[in-house]
Amino acid sequence: MSRPRNVVVAQSGGPTPVINNSLCGIVETCRSMPEHFGSVYAGWHGIEGVLREQLLDLSAQPEEEISLLGVTPAAGAIGTCRYKMKPAQQEDFERVIEVFKAHDVGYFFYIGGNDSMDTAHKVANVARERGLGLVSTGVPKTIDNDVGDSEFKLIDHTPGYGSVARYWALTVQNANEENAGSCPADPVLVMQAMGRKIGFIPAAARLADPQREMPLLIAMRESGLTLQELASAVNDKLRERNRCLLVISEGFPVPQEELGVLRDSFGHVMFSSSKMNVERIVVNYLNDVGLAARGAARGNVPGTDQRHNMIYASTVDLEEAYRVGQKAVVVALEDGSGYMATILREPGSLYNVRYDKVTLELVANSERSFPEAWIAPSRLDVTDDFVHYARPLIGDDWPSIPLVGGRQRFARLRPIFAEKKLPPYIPQAHRSR
Question: How far is Cα 63 from Cα 241, in angstroms, rounded to an integer?
Fold first, then answer.
């Protein structure tokens, strides 16, 4: 039998309420097989931590703290980053290989979305070219549910989405109570949801009202409506019901110069960091053109609360995030390098999934879109087919979160890092020009 090799796990991109459950699944599964896996390290703040040789020793952490990762949201435990490994940055790739060689790393797990799967794929290729013998494996994560393909053959849904969908199902329920009581003065409530490129998050608002009893409109990026058409639909709803809830995607197409947009290092628009937002533009527009009811439009803009609030986490999402982390370890051990662990839905009327694998190359070069068939003819709602797809993902119960002194008990990892063996290094994209 070959000797145990060390492990590095890292996270990239925006966090989710359940991302640490995938991390927990990886660490606990590796710990259960000491004949195959040696020390488990975390890249401190993603691939940047690998480049800087900042490797947090997870094997040195108490078992209780590793277990508590399962109820710890976001990425505070080991950090994340938005560092894109571009093909021209060959020094970065060489540095990753040097760090892995120096620390006898035989397994690399990267938790993230499409960009992260692309990085994992490139690292696998470079390692193979250098004869390193590294197994590079992807673990899916994104609240946007945009990893994979539009036919749902590569992955049915990504860990993180079910929890954010649950957040919106419950948030809209509560907002409806507020709007129903306040509508004589505030007949319209506009709520901005994350989803800069794809509509799965705002679409989840329909889970609050599958029977369509609320005066609810959902404007996704894919809706293809103008501000004038949106205002007309809101006023039609006011004439019908005297009030209106509008959930709108942060990526709804308004002129970007009005947003004062900022972009992250992946090139993605950072709506929550920009000078203006879609909700404010829409609220101002509605109030300027006038409402078909007394009173004014108001707005809410939830921010990263959508993805860092453990209270709203889906129990289904929590379990699946852990299982896909476990599956990634099994795939790495049994199938070798170049795969992403995946979740596939079994056919039938009862919700059930199986865990499988797909090549990183396929995932890295794919892009999911929101199915046109799931957009209602009005362009301001989703169909029952979407509801049937998304409903099982939000679960049926509250997560069990330990409290100590009335406060949530999160994992608190000790700052124990592997001893550095290489010269200091500045990632290429961070060097002054």
Answer: 55
**Interval 49-100: pLDDT, tens:** 999 999 999 999 999 999 999 999 998 899 999 998 888 899 999 999 999 9
Closest by Cα among 140, 137, 135 to 13: 140
Catalytic residue (choose from 92, 115, 118, 144)? 144
pTM above 0.90, yes or no: yes
Tell me the sheet residues that pair with 245: 189, 216
Q: Please state, in angstroms and rounded to a whole number, the distance separating the CA atoms of residues 47 and 431.
A: 16
Q: List, for residues 88-102, the tens digit of each pLDDT value.
A: 899 999 999 999 999
Q: Active-site residue 144, yes or no?
A: yes
Residue 144, both tokens:
């946007």
pLDDT mean across residues, the chain: 94
Residue 263's Cα: distance from chain center in Å?
Answer: 18
CB 207 within 8 A of CB 217: no
Backbone phi, then psi, for 122, in 5-degree steps?
-65, -40
